Amino acid sequence: MYVDMPASELPAYRSSQVDPDDFDEFWAATLETSRAAASAVRIEPVESGLTTIDVFDVTFSGWNGQPVKAWLRMPKGATGPLPAIVQFVGYGGGRGHRLEDLFYASSGFAHFQMDTRGQGSGWSLGDTPDPDGTGPQTPGVMTRGIDSRETYYYRRLFTDAVRAVETVRELDSVDASRISVFGISQGGGIALAVAGLVPGLAAVAPCVPFLCDFPRATVITDGYPYKEIGDYLSIHRDRVEPVAGVLAYFDGVNFAKRASAPALFSTSLMDSTCPPSTVHAAYNVYGGERSMSLWQFNGHEGGGIVDVERALEFFRGIVGNA
């Protein structure tokens, strides 16, 4: 059933989320510190048994120089700089198995799939720890380190994601001017954060994005993972306003305002995990050219493979073929 406002009202909706005065300074300092701590990238070929795709095990420097894993998948024998897609993963998942997610490499792109620190094992494999997890939290990562913006989990994860794009830009096999970012659910929220923090992206495709419009999302749905924040605040009753202040630095609405790359969003009217108004909260203030796939009879699965297919067509329309 429909879980949110009707489709006719979504284009006019605006979030109540605040825009912290020092938002840009906070993120500039965060990223610069991690860049300064970076070490050399390690790229090792992996035996996959595939005849059309080469797979590489990548270790790059993310938050505070900490090692983060990724898969790099390339069309076998590709020469010359390729357009690239950097993909971020949904909640609870990691970079997965080396033989998963072959779609974009099979389509001629360099495909860089970032692992998700401290996640994995919920529904796909993960190989990157989160050594800085701290403080009381509910199960999951939504309240990990939520006592301050400095310690909040998504500060580390969003920094990893920015560093992933910066790592891909340095690869000889990639055309640095043709890098796009893609993700579904949490991955879509991470893609939005990257779009607001990294200039010069070719395109962005956040599908049914999570991590948008915390003021509304945390009260309009009982669905997890947003409900983790509600669970935490039901115990820490005196932390409502401080937590809201922290989350403002990590909200897709505030990143969307700062983004400029062309974007293809998707949302579903029956999505109780990431309600459509929360997605439109970011979409309606997005700073670049944008379009929306609105699925009337779907939940959090969104358009499924059709979202992926449309993202490929969208990317090719901007960066061309390999």
UniProtKB/TrEMBL annotation:
Residues 3-314 form the Acetyl xylan esterase domain. The active site is at 185 (nucleophile), 271 (charge relay system), 300 (charge relay system). SUPFAM superfamilies: alpha/beta-Hydrolases (SSF53474). This is Acetylesterase. One of its GO terms (molecular function) is carboxylic ester hydrolase activity. Residues 120-142 are annotated as: Disordered. GO terms for biological process: polysaccharide metabolic process. InterPro entries: AB_hydrolase_fold (IPR029058), AXE1_dom (IPR008391), CE7 (IPR039069). The lineage of its organism: Bacteria, Bacillati, Actinomycetota, Actinomycetes, Micrococcales. Pfam families: AXE1. Substrate binds at residue 91. Residues 126-140 have a biased composition (Low complexity).
